[in-house]
Fold this sequence. Notes:
There is one protein chain. This protein has 407 residues and is an alpha/beta fold. It has two domains: 7-45 and 291-406, Aspartate Aminotransferase, domain 1 (Alpha-Beta Complex), CATH 3.90.1150.10; 48-286, Type I PLP-dependent aspartate aminotransferase-like (Major domain) (Aspartate Aminotransferase, domain 2), CATH 3.40.640. It is built from 13 helices and 14 strands. The protein has helices at 7-10, 17-29, 48-58, 73-87, 103-114, 130-137, 151-162, 186-199, 256-269, 275-286, 290-312, 338-350, 376-391, and strands at residues 35-36, 97-100, 120-125, 141-146, 170-174, 202-206, 232-237, 250-254, 325-329, 352-353, 355-356, 367-371, 393-396, 403-406. The strands form four sheets. It has a seven-stranded mixed sheet, with helices on both faces. The chain has a three-stranded antiparallel sheet with strand order 9-12-11. Strand 13 and strand 14 form a beta hairpin. Helix 4 (73-87) packs parallel to helix 10 (275-286). It is globular, with a radius of gyration of 22 Å. The model is unreliable at 396-402 (pLDDT under 50).
Amino acid sequence: MIDQQFHKIKRLPPYVFAEVNAMKAKARGAGEDIIDFGMGNPDSPTPKHIVDKLVAAVQDPRTHRYSNSRGIPGLRKALAGYYGRRFGVELDAESEVVAVLGSKEGLANLAQAITSPGDIILAPNPSYPIHMFGFIIAGAAIRSLPALAGPEFLTQLDRSFRHSVPKPTALVLNYPANPTTQVVDLDFYREVVAYCRTHGIYILSDIAYSEIYFEGDPPPSVLQIPEAREIAVEFTSLSKTYSMPGWRIGFAAGNQRLIAALARVKSYLDYGAFTPVQVAAAAALNGPQDCVDEMRELYRNRRDVLVEGLRASGWWVPSPPATMFLWAPVPPQFAAMGSLEFSKLLLRHAKVAVSPGVGFGEYGEGFVRFALVENRQRIRQACRNIKAFLNNTQIDIEKPAGELVMS
């Protein structure tokens, strides 16, 4: 047997969520009813008119052949049309738009296109894992920025730039943010764009949750800042907006040089999404948008039920302004044990699965993430279980591991 280490694999840490997932599978195997807020996997069906378009397209045998790696022209035009309507940004569908197999794949492929070993990438922490590990796989070093959303972020950005050797080549942004749910305004983007233009840093923006917002103005795009076209590319996805996670379709839009680099790498790696999926995605963007309003209202209702229920149980949590998540501080009496152990405790005693914050980066420690993927009845049951758990649990903080005592 060949005993050989794979360098890139060694750079990937053990998957923190695996422990909770293994416990969840074991509990379900034993017949336990687990209320699962762990993965951000939308539970609503894809709207009927989108499915109907897929079915109609797949009946045409011409769509069964290899597709277009950059995306069929109709889909790229549909995304350009969306940017025009939603953000007032005019895009060239030929040179400023590429369809990708989900924004996760798009970010990873762009990382391969623009990263050389030893490059430094600035990424938020905590963050969606691909924001860091897409570049780590490509050979870069990551300098973490605390996931903030105001002047403090700009201060941290400047500090990171000044103390990085070599100087950073790209900055990853994600607003509305997963997992922290933070939002920003155009003034924030304006300052970040100005700083990055001055210092020669590309901006890679992920707005996968831009349509899931509950208060205030709709979240903006960095491309609404005219100068951003010189340095920025933005990723978005149909997964959450149209409840299409398994369809694996998303987009990159913006700076022509970055788009061309992504398209070139993709041309070696894939032939594009299945053509009927692309046709249906164009129908989603061009068709009636009532389904987006309904989706937004669904998550708003679930958010309100969960926040109210947790607060009533004695667990104070902030109400998220956007995304399909709730970013909850670990209750003070459990803080010493950390987010992973607390998540395991919650699963074992309350039959509720959440994602430990440390799985999104070390600055996520002290929090857990709830995904709003259970219906309101199940959310209320989860809150009752959590209330019973909190009311009947004591932690002996004098003992090193924090021994659990059920009263």
